[in-house]
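BUG: 3D viewer hangs when loading the predicted structure for this chain

Environment: internal workstation, default settings.
Expected: structure renders.
Actual: progress bar stalls at 90%.

Input used:
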Amino acid sequence: MAASGRQVWQYIHKNNRILFRNLEQVLFHRNFVGISAFRQQAVEARNDSAEPIVVPRKKLWNKESVLEALARTVRRDPTAYPYQFQDDPYLSPRNAAEFKLYSLSQESGRSAAKYLVDSYPKFFTKDFAEPHIPCLMPATVSLRLEEVSDEALKERISLRKVKAAVDMYDQLLQDGTSVSMETTHDLLDLICLFCDRDPIREDETQTEDMEELGREVRKRKGKVRRASDLLTFTWRENNNAERIFNLLPERDTRCYSALIRGMVKHGAYIKAFSVYTDLLNNRLTADIHIFNALISAAPEVRDKYIDRWNLITEILNQMSQQKIQPNLQTFNCILKALRRCGSLARTLALHTLSEMTALRIAPSLATFDHVLAIFYKAASAGQGNTDILQEVMSELAGKNFTCQDPGDVLFFSNAMRICLDYKDLELGYKVQSLVEVGENWRLLGDSYQQSIYYGRFFNLLCMMEHIDVVLKWYKELIPSLYYPNPQGLRDLLQALDTDSRLDVLPSIWKDIRSLGHDNKPDLIEELLALMAREKHSPEVQESFAMCALDIKSAFDGNRSRTSLEWSTPTLSHVTSLLLRANKIQKAWEMLQLFKEKNRVPSDELLEDFLSVCRSKGSAQRAVELVELSAAFCLQATPRLAKLTRADFDLSEDQITTLSELESAAEPAD
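Structure tokens produced before the viewer hung:
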């Protein structure tokens, strides 16, 4: 069939060449006419609109599209640990301290693996990943070009070897070889970024540089006016950046930009302004990065608030004269500087936002974070109102943000701090709603910032929300998003006490143990005090007694922890809870523990124990209780002896024993 089919096709093709040729011409004509008409429409549309229209030939899908589509079909499991810890459930962290330890250990393992891969690339030549993941492949960390050349200099710059790049640059100058301006720019950027020192890798230390820096700090310590002045010593006088800059026959704006930004980054603020003056004297025009750096340095070179703002105004006027358009970072630098301008900042911050609107520059989260920091000082928490934050949240509602400034990750935690300080629950919900929009949760910052944000949100809920809603959020946040600290758990206990929901305390104790906070005596004592404060139904008392026994096992099983020791209130609360559940033998063991730990039980506790013995008809236990009271030399011993003789059917020996104890306990005349 296959052979005959090919023969038929060859026969048709051989005898119908003219037909095929005509058919091809028709198809080509149709396609050409269609494309020409489409192009004509595109040209007309392009003429009508300001932006060109690019028609893709086909829809392009990246290799992660299927995974992204599948990811949108699932939701976060609130009962599961964070995804980065699910590889080894046994080692999953239970609290913030273990979370930090696990994260550091995980990062240390990655760094060790990266070091091995980069140091021995010949053993890692296979690449099975689909799609290709460049960061998992060996990186070139060793120098391959040893000859003195411009290419060798570029290699050292790309590998961020500062000292090797400077040495190669000096050798090129000694040999009379000119270095291209582009390479010089990259070299200056590298030196100024790392302050003339090789970046510290995980497997390396820079002992010499650290010792030299320490000597410089000690040498000039007497000249320090404020703590931030210590940063000025990291920019060394006449370092390689300045030396190479001074050796350049021609200096353009890029060279000045690298030097000024490096000086500002590493604390040489006054010197940065001096270099900027030199740039103006050479009749050069600064770029936007220079102006942004100078605005950031303005509060460091002026002491008075008005002088700082005047300097910022002067810089902005020079930007206008040099026809440099400000960008988002410019306004963020202005607002950040205004945070250190005292009472002037509030009015000037609003003017700055108005200017951003006039220039059609969309603010980022860092912009609003600076505004909130200006209007809400930590020292004046709770004073005034939250109108500014209300307006900010109305402006941001429903928007999806991407990180445009390093300060973007501070907005949510600071906004929630304001909500907590002013106890504004409705505003706190607005902040949380913004976090849940799109991928805004990525702007919560690292794990530490995320823990701060959710801790403040949960604290606000515990203070202001109904307990049922608090417990709902409790299940939603813990442990998948937030590891509560002891203070967060105390806030929850207070919320349960306020709304009279003490019946859930045993389940909270289980969470306390699972979170690793069962070694906090203050937290345990507060939990026991709530359970033992008043009587409840038999079912609740039974659950409280089982919880008390579990707490006792926590004390018995933590003998190696010096921080967990029985206190008198803790022993009293556990004993009372056991008595209310009619667990006399367990309660008696707790009374013996009083004696073992040299703790003195209260008279009220012994009377409660005697009442339980009376209800059970346990005369011998009552006598032993009086003996225990006499052993502690309690003033209630005579009264307990009298009550025991009156309420119990005693033997002669027991009566004699009680009489002796009563006479021994009575004070002598």
